[in-house]
Amino acid sequence: MSKSGLDFSVGDHVVYPAHGVGLVQGIETQEVAGLKLEVYVITFDHEKMTLRVPTGKAKSAGLRPLAETNVVSQALNTLKGRARVKRTMWSRRAQEYEAKINSGDLISIAEVVRDLHRAENQPEQSYSERQLYESALDRMAREVAAIERIDREEAIGILAKSLVRTAA
């Protein structure tokens, strides 16, 4: 068990707030400024990126295991809810949505997907709304895919089913 209270093994899927689902490829000891530092080596295939997170700082960095089943259920239920769009300026809402996506919290990400989702009969989204929606949907789908051991497209199908609202 590491000093952080988090203990990940090689092959574990983890969630890093700013990048989503990654895979622990290894645990290395590196020397930085004369100090030995144990780090998790995490790869994010979809971003073609490798991140090294000190094991002692993993928790404060927001690194977490994949969401539990009950959290996934809550997130899917969140998608079924009514969109809650504040009447503030778009730039402020966009910042709030971005913060929710980068929080790494599955339920917060689900709120962004729900709030920015457009049904076929609704007006077009602006480019920036669509970008945030796609980013949140992708982040959520990747975590659901890793949890359910399915591919991203199947996960998007699951999310889409939750997003279909009954005619009001």
Automatic annotation (TrEMBL):
InterPro entries: CarD-like/TRCF_RID, CarD-like/TRCF_RID_sf, CarD-like_C, CarD-like_regulator, CarD_C. Pfam families: CarD_C (PF21095), CarD_TRCF_RID (PF02559). Residues 7-117 form the CarD-like/TRCF RNAP-interacting domain. Coiled coil: none annotated. This is CarD family transcriptional regulator. It comes from Phenylobacterium terrae. The lineage of its organism: Bacteria, Pseudomonadati, Pseudomonadota, Alphaproteobacteria, Caulobacterales.
